[in-house]
Specification:
- A hairpin with a 2-residue loop joins β1 and β2.
- The chain is 51% helix and 27% strand.
- The chain has one domain.
- It is built from 2 helices and 3 strands; from the N terminus they run ααβββ.
- Strands 1-2-3 form a 3-stranded antiparallel β-sheet.
- Residues 8-54 form the Putative Flp pilus-assembly TadG-like N-terminal domain.
- Pfam families: Tad.
- It comes from Micromonospora polyrhachis.
- This is Secretion/DNA translocation related TadE-like protein.
């Protein structure tokens, strides 16, 4: 037997549980968006470094231009590029917006060049 004082308490519990589930879903979506941006930055950096390393003998300008083209085609922005002999190291940044109004970026550095023993 319920009293008049307890009437409607189930609605409040359902509302509270619903809000917790919505918050968990939003948090999960934010983490997912950040991970996707990180993977996108990693792919863009790896492909940009490989494409630029092919042109390392043509000079740093040509190699870095080629890397920048590939990085931008993969949704990234080239923020650093250095050529050291036959090695090319690129730093790539990808913008991420895990939640509206929360702008972040994922930054990754990749190196490509000959295998060293």
């Amino acid at each position: 037997m319920t009293t008049a004082r307890e009437r409607g308490s189930a609605s409040l519990w359902l509302l509270a549980i619903g809000l917790v589930l919505v918050a968990a879903g939003i948090g999960g979506a934010a983490v997912g968006a950040a991970r996707v941006a990180r993977h996108q930055a990693r792919v863009a950096a790896d492909l940009g470094a490989l494409a630029g390393a092919v042109h390392a003998l043509d000079g740093p300008v040509v190699a870095c231009d080629r890397a920048a083209t590939i990085v931008s085609a993969n949704g990234g922005r080239l923020t650093g590029c250095t050529v050291d002999g036959l090695d090319l190291e690129v730093t790539v940044e990808v913008a991420a917006t895990p939640l509206p109004g929360l702008d972040r970026s994922a930054t990754v550095t990749a190196r490509a060049g000959p295998i060293r023993a």
